[in-house]
Amino acid sequence: MIHPRAVIAPAAELAHDVAVGPYAVIGPDVQIKAGTWIGPHVVIQGPTRIGVNNRIFQFASIGEIPQDKKFQGERTWLEIGAGNTIREYVTINRGTAAGGGITRVGDDNWIMAYCHIAHDCQVGNATVFANNASLAGHVEVHDNSILSGFSLVHQFSRLGRHCFLAFGAHVDRDVPPYVMAAGQRATPRGINIKGLQRHGFTKETVQALKRAYKTLYSSGLRLDEALGVLDEIGHEVPNVAAFSHFIRGSRRGIIR
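The line above is the sequence of Acyl-[acyl-carrier-protein]--UDP-N-acetylglucosamine O-acyltransferase; the predicted structure tokens follow.
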């Protein structure tokens, strides 16, 4: 399962069925669990923990030190969950001490070629990163988000659940859950209706989210007034309550 031309540090811990292609380099303090396939020329540095049944394609760089001038060689980590597909030339950096020390990628994510996930990012589950999508440091990407090709996300921004970034979107603030964003700089373009339908959201829930979106973005209400209306809707529709909760938790502000 391990090609004789792979270079694996003696201190690395690989499950018995991990496959490693030729010329891959795996450093010390790397743990890789069962069923994971590492392609040729992949470089994995530690401390890094990789879960079960991942596929990491050729020339990816995983767990390298952060691209942050404040980093002084502190012991920081990268954690990758289970069932992820990480394609060619993807780069995922470890965390920094200032950011809590850890970069995390959850389960069942699809990360296409040339994507970059910077230090201290927190990526949830079942996301899609199309080619060349990039995250600056400290970004949060919540479950089921979709980032189209060449989309860029500014540091400390958050992408809410089931949001959708259009091709080339430049995001410099938070994108609320269920919202589509497009443009440079990115602005809201409605609710991600198709995505919600694919994930089994009922017609009634989608209609409630559309009402919440219109209340926030086109009612003419001040933000505090709009949030009051959203709270009323949220008593009956939990997804609207989540929409409101995300906005209240925003530090950078939401896209407008």
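Note on the example: DSSP finds four helices and 27 strands in the chain. The longest helix spans residues 203-217.
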